[in-house]
Amino acid sequence: MQQLYCNSCERFLADRLVEGYCPTEGCNYDSARGDQCEKCGKLLNSTDLIDPKCKVCGSTPCVRDTDHLFLELPLLKEKLEKYIDEPYVAGSWSQNAVHATNAWLKEGLKPRCITRDLKWGVPVPHEKYKDKVFYVWFDAPIGYISITACYTPEWEKWWKNPENVELYQFMGKDNVPFHTVMFPSTLLGTGENWTLMKTISVTEYLNYESGKFSKTKGIGVFGNDAKATNIPPEVWRYYLLTNRPEASDTLFTWTDLQAKCNNELLNNLGNFINRVLSFIAKPEGTGYGSVIPVSPDLDSHTLTLSLAETVGKLIEQYIDAMDKVRLKQGLKIAMAISSEGNAYLQESKFWKLYKQNPASCATVMKTSVGLVYLLACLLEPFMPSFSKEVLQQLNLCPEEHLSFCDEKGDSGKAKRPWDLIPSGHRIGKPAPLFKGLENDAVTGLREKFAGSQAERKLRTEVVAQLEATEI
Fold first, then answer.
1. Taking the CB of residue 305, how many other CB atoms lie within 10 A of it?
2. What are phi and psi of 340, to 5 degrees?
């Protein structure tokens, strides 16, 4: 095959070290990499790029002949299409995964190069190709198997047991063909009984303020940046998951992060839980002395029975969404239950019932504390640190109590929230679960993380020089 070679650097160029204009009609993206265009998602060969440049020295590379190993995809076409049809018919692949895969199949499968002329990588175990390494998207998925083999000698119980194991995978849309075409073809080509991916959940792009997140260009907020903001992990998790680009691109903005933290986490979820637990924790005479009360009038409490019916339907929707890996929808439904809880408290006027109708107030409080526990269960996949803190405030052990289903997996008890925590149970000490994000702090963060990381570094150096001059 032909490959780009940089005479200045004296080496063949890795895909990530060459950029040029995308050759795909109608795209013309000026920063397409040697193996893929980030804009249109099309997989490329580096020699297809228009006006390619070496990213190390900026010079124009030349084309040289070189010998490589290929995966013979056309010979696997029938087996691959049969495999793809099964999850497609079952509806367990997200639509963007289906579209990306069908685009590959429509073009016609071609032999795919699986080696590179590089020094860094997994060496090819063949005498003729000993100076080459495997292409990263050939060997990386195989790493899923080898990682399991490092963990347990019984790895075949997972990877060669398709009758009893379901494989779920999550990724961005630019990595789809490697997992729906390349990797399955690699496994199918062995003729062995591998566990193939059943469900794939693919996200579109999360954009940053007015542009794209880009690790190579240093634009956006990354792991170390997120930690440096001192915004709690559960806030980051909630915002990113509620903003998960499942069907189309979504946008990260600091003002939106602030709004979701203050309006949804603090004023909705945090407010509901704190109102319930704080009232129960009040001394007897004004509350329940931190002990869950007995509720004697459940059968006749219309408001509570109406709430239970609504919550029951939402639980069914939540389970359906999570089973179908619609995480954003699952999170939205869980938060709807919190909103129902707030409305329930307001409509019950529990603060008046405490003196006027103690039995009714006890029912409202016992039901509400059950909802608190239910929310800890429902939100644990999204905000595990939040759920852990809620269970501590409920004085419950996460390992023993975090489930709204019985031993058979029946979720029926979740439709009776008053039964989730028994009367007589003593709760822990209530405390606020979230803090609001102030305008000044958000403005500061937006300014701090504006531009690229290189520009941020320059700004920091300029400020430091000015401060040194003033001193």
1. 13
2. -60, -40
- String of DSSP letters for 1-23: -EEEEETTTTEEPPGGGEEEE--
Structure tokens of 316? 């069914």
- pLDDT tens digits along 133-185: 999 999 999 999 999 999 999 999 999 999 999 999 999 988 999 999 999 99
Residue 137: closest CA among 38, 23, 216, 43 = 43
Q: Which is it for strands 50-54 and 62-65: parallel, antiparallel or unpaired?
A: unpaired
Strand partners, 43: 36
Read off the tokens for 275: 């109102």
Distance (Å, whole) CA 255 – CA 70:
49
How far apart CA 201 and CA 381 sit, in angstroms, is 16
Residue 204 near residue 247, CB atoms below 8 Å: yes
Q: Under a CB-based contact definition with an 8 Å cutoff, are residues 470 and 271 in contact?
A: no
Asked whether the beta carbons of 36 and 44 are under 8 A apart, the reply is: yes
Determine the Cα–Cα distance for residues 438 and 352; give it in Å rounded to an integer.
34
Scan for tokens 């939205």, then name that residue. Answer: 332
| Cα–Cα distance, 184 to 177 (Å, whole number) | 10
What gap in Å lies between CA 46 and CA 36, rounded to an integer?
9
Q: Which residues have a Cβ under 8 Å from the Cβ of 344 and sit 6 or more positions away? A: 303, 304, 307, 364, 367, 368, 371
The sign of the CA dihedral 130, 136, 139, 143 is positive
Query: Distance (Å, rounded) from C-alpha 221 to C-alpha 212?
Result: 11
pLDDT tens profile 42-57:
888 899 999 999 999 9
